[in-house]
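Colleagues,

For the teaching module next term, I've prepared a clean inverse folding example: a structure given as tokens, and then the sequence designed for it. I'd like students to try predicting residues themselves before seeing the answer, so please don't circulate the second half yet.
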């Protein structure tokens, strides 16, 4: 089985090779290329393998996370639920840091510690003097007080015995909690080698926290879907997987059934759960574990109980899975990109061209220099015009995305009354309807609206939004390929002049391909859509289709999450609306529908502005990233040509001894880059072999 140590060894090997490539690029005065290698090193150094534990509420996610880590570091109780996303990372000692929401909620919980309230007040509740939102800096808190922040505070007894009051209480906590995430540090072996565990609120706990959990999943390398072995994979859990997680691209969920200690026949139950979940994930093996037994076994040093818990076996599988399936991809992609730049550019073009220049008469070089300088000046001017055009067009395109999204929300809100009015509940009223009757009818209406919203969004996404994104992308980058090609041709022409060949000569590896290679290396962190954008050139159309699909899914999942479970205060408001109603009938049904429609629309209004803002920011971030990568690719090639020009200037005034030194420097650089390339090729072979072994053993 693969281990994190192996993963880190592979990563460190690539980091060492990247460092050598960077140093060689700097020795050749290729500043832009060296900076690109450095940026990739920084990404690899700071990258972690992120595991997120998800599931519906009260399946023991915090206990399970504690069992994986090996100690009770997350608060666990029979009543409170996780209310804040907790990122658990490696640190030499225990430490807890709280990050605040921005903007803060309008109200604040009574349960906030006095010192924390004073800290919030110090920053004027996250507002500037003129009322603008600001981000309150993170706050380190006492570790033993963590439960006051990441868990819903324990309700009083009168709330506990009333299920409706308990729902209202949880909704209040969700609405008024000022905390965004908790960042926890702990010296656990599982975390030592660049692994983070993320404990998140239940996917059916509240609309707001559901969206937070789903947003975090975008950054996760693996998702553990935690079930309760005593009543596994309910209809609700299947719906969460189908309607949310699969749409976010998580088709390889790691299914784990906690609380297997509550089941008499563990083996049979595990096989049953495996059969139930088989069609929902490509990972067919289900692990049945007991977090309770694991923690007790560790506490009592009872190795038999610990082994019986199933946690050690799952942990071994998890490490192997993360290393082979997820970790190798994180290394292979940048390794391939770097190798392409080294072999396809530096070894094939840059060094041979410079060596050829050293063997040319000074008078000939001076003539070439005189011819190339005006071309280089024109090239830099063309690059600046392209940059200004991209800035202007990206800004216009991003702003234009906002309008159709806002219009969608308006149309959605106007449709709600019709959907609710036309709906006939399956269950009518009794003559004297109870709270339960009212709640049941209200929930039927809510489910109907959720289904209609899904249909409405899917239609709009396919017929309108995807087209809007593609059109705006065309506005922002429509002329990009031709402009890059034109600039690349100018670069090739200047290099041809400097080498004394026909300016129209087409090199084996064109500047267009080299620009694409550099841009791809810089664009790697942009995620799945960005991964293939420069593969084999500028396939921008394919990139935009992937990006548009990803963004469309993300909006839809977040939007529908608002309706799947009752919005804030929904049940209480429905019951309150009928406090004085003694009889059932049509009047009661209409009044229920009106109340439901009003509260759904209010929830929509409360969330629409933030949702629109998040979508627009995502578009802006992606477009800016693409623009940056393209311009950096061009700058790298211009930098290379400029260095060649400067070297020719120096050669025309240097003696033979200086030329011999430069020749030796280039030969040394070629030897080093060949060695780096060989090292990367060997590393890629090891990664491929490890992946093949995993396939054979699966």
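(Answer key — instructors only)
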């Amino acid at each position: 089985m693969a281990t994190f140590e192996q993963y880190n060894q592979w990563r460190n090997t690539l980091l060492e090779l990247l460092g050598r490539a960077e140093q060689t690029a700097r020795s050749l005065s290729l500043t832009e290329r060296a900076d690109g290698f450095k940026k990739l090193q920084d990404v690899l150094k700071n990258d972690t393998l992120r595991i997120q534990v998800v599931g519906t509420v009260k399946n023991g996610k915090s206990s399970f996370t504690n069992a994986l880590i090996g100690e009770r570091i997350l608060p666990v109780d029979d009543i409170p639920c996780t209310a804040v996303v907790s990122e658990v990372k490696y640190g030499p000692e225990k430490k807890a840091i709280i990050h605040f929401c921005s903007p803060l909620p309008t109200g604040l919980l009574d349960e906030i510690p006095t010192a924390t309230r004073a800290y919030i007040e110090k920053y004027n509740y996250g507002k500037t003097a003129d009322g603008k939102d600001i981000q309150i800096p993170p706050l380190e808190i006492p570790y033993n007080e963590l439960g006051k922040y990441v868990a819903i505070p324990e309700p009083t007894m009168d709330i506990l015995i009333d299920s409706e009051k308990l729902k209202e209480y949880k909704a209040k906590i969700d609405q008024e909690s000022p905390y965004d995430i908790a960042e926890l540090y702990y010296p656990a072996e599982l975390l030592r080698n660049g692994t983070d565990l993320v404990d998140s609120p239940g996917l059916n706990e509240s609309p707001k926290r559901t969206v937070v959990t789903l947003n975090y999943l975008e950054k996760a390398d693996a998702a553990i879907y935690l079930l309760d072995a005593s009543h596994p994979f309910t209809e609700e859990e299947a719906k969460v997987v189908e309607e949310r997680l699969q749409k976010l691209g998580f088709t390889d969920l790691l299914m784990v059934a906690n609380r297997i200690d509550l089941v008499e026949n563990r083996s049979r139950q595990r096989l049953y759960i495996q059969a139930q979940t088989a069609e929902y994930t490509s990972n067919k093996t289900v692990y049945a574990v007991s977090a309770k037994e694991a923690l007790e076994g560790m506490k009592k040093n009872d190795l038999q109980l610990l082994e019986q818990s199933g946690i050690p076996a799952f942990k071994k599988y998890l490490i192997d899975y993360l290393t082979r399936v997820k970790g190798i991809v994180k290394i292979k992609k940048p390794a391939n990109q770097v190798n392409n730049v080294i072999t396809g550019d530096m070894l094939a073009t840059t060094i041979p061209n410079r060596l050829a220049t050293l063997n040319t008469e000074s008078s000939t070089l001076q003539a070439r220099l005189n011819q190339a300088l005006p071309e280089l000046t024109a090239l830099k001017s063309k690059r600046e015009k392209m940059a200004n055009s991209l800035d202007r067009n990206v800004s216009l395109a991003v702003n234009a995305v906002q309008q159709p999204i806002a219009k969608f929300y308006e149309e959605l809100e106007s449709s709600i009354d019709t959907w609710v009015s036309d709906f006939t509940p399956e269950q009518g009223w009794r003559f004297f309807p109870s709270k339960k009757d009212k709640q049941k009818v209200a929930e039927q209406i809510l489910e109907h609206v959720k289904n209609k919203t899904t249909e409405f969004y899917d239609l709009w996404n396919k017929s309108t939004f995807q087209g809007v994104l593609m059109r705006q992308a065309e506005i922002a980058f429509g002329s990009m390929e031709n402009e890059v090609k034109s600039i690349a041709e100018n670069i090739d022409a200047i290099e041809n002049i400097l080498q004394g060949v026909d300016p129209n000569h087409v090199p084996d590896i064109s500047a267009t391909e080299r620009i694409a290679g550099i841009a791809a290396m810089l664009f790697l962190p942009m995620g799945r859509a960005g991964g293939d954008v420069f593969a084999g050139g500028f396939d921008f159309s394919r990139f935009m289709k992937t990006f548009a699909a990803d963004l469309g899914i993300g909006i839809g999942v977040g939007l529908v999450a608002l309706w799947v479970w009752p919005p804030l205060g929904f049940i209480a408001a429905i019951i309150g609306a009928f406090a004085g109603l003694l009889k059932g009938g049509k009047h009661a049904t209409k009044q229920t529908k009106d109340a439901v429609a009003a509260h759904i629309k209010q929830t929509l209004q409360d969330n629409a502005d933030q949702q629109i803002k998040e979508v627009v920011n995502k578009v802006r971030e992606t477009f800016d990233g693409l623009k940056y990568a393209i311009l950096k690719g061009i700058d790298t090639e211009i930098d290379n040509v400029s260095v060649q020009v400067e070297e020719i200037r120096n050669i025309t005034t240097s003696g033979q001894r200086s030329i011999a030194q430069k020749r030796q420097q280039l030969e040394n650089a070629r030897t080093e880059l060949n060695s780096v390339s060989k090292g990367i090729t060997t590393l890629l072979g090891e990664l491929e072999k490890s992946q093949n072994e995993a396939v054979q053993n699966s």
